[in-house]
Request: fold
Amino acid sequence: MNKPKSCNASTLRRLPWARWQMYAFFLWLCLIVLGWIAWLLIPDYRRFWIHGFAPQWWKIQRMLTGWISFSVGDLGYIGLMLWGLWQVFAFIRDWMKHGMHLQTWGRPLLRMAVVISLMYGWFQLGWGFAYLLPRVQQSFQLPLQPYSDAELRELAQWLASATNAYYVPIKPDAKKQPVLYFREYIAPGAVKAYAQLHQQGWLAPYRHASLKPSLFRAAMNYMGIEGYYNPFTGEAQVNTDIPPVLLPFVTCHEIAHQMGFAQEYAANFVGFLAATHAADSLFRYSAYLDMLLYACNSLRHSREQGDSLFLHRIWEHLLPGVKQDIHRIYAYEQAYAGPADRLMMHVYDAFLKANHQRRGIHSYQQVIALLIQYRRQLRVRA
Reply:
């Protein structure tokens, strides 16, 4: 007769809880799969998601986090990193104590699977589907079409002229107290810019702002990140260490993400529209300067003969203050360029491609095609 295995009270108490966790885990996985099936096969679900559920969900997120002065999402990432380090420590401790067997590596692996599935489901059901929608094409009737080298040069000239026209010197306090400058001047100005865009009938109203200076600014400098949208909390995180002239446009770019424009080129275009419709000349100057740098980058990679001379002519016609701001931008980029920056670009490139942005990190540059289409529309209306 076999002797029954010992089973103490604490083990008995853990069994129902472990079973409940397993049921909840598989239920969550089923919900993710059903969400994908509904998205792919049921058009009414797609319409409900983008016109009903998603905008309300994003608004609720901003309502919950917008009134808090610090970044809730960044604290969440810090907690997640600490939890991950604890799991690694616990794994090594159990390995050294009990040896390598199924229970040693199976439990931490299961915990990791649960956390990853929770985060993926939250991300995909609450935000990730936005990557599959051509929002900017639908909202503004601007298809991504090829353009000629002549159109690219004409765009660069227009952007250079506008950059000169709206040039304003950066306030001294922007460099001395960047976080305070962002909170008191840039964030409210960006909200006003989107209110102006709404009044002119371009977009739905932007309400319940949640704009935060990131807690990871030092790391973001080395990774080449100017800002990011946190899909788990709805917060727009801005790296206030970047040159102040970039802050207005970067903030408008991140608000565009909050409004559901997931693709980077789409957020660039919507951010450009908002900043250039602002009453504040600094926002207009920031947007035109940023897009001028995009256009010049496209010209540098063009095979058209004479583009180098054309770029030189554009540079010569820029105001001295504009040239100084461009020098500051490139000096900032060079100061933090290195392995972390290159690694982050590869990681983010893979992330964008995994989320159906075929050109990856180069999708930012597609804003040039939208701007040229936008210019075509302006000429037709004129």
Q: What stands out?
A: The longest strand covers residues 227-230.
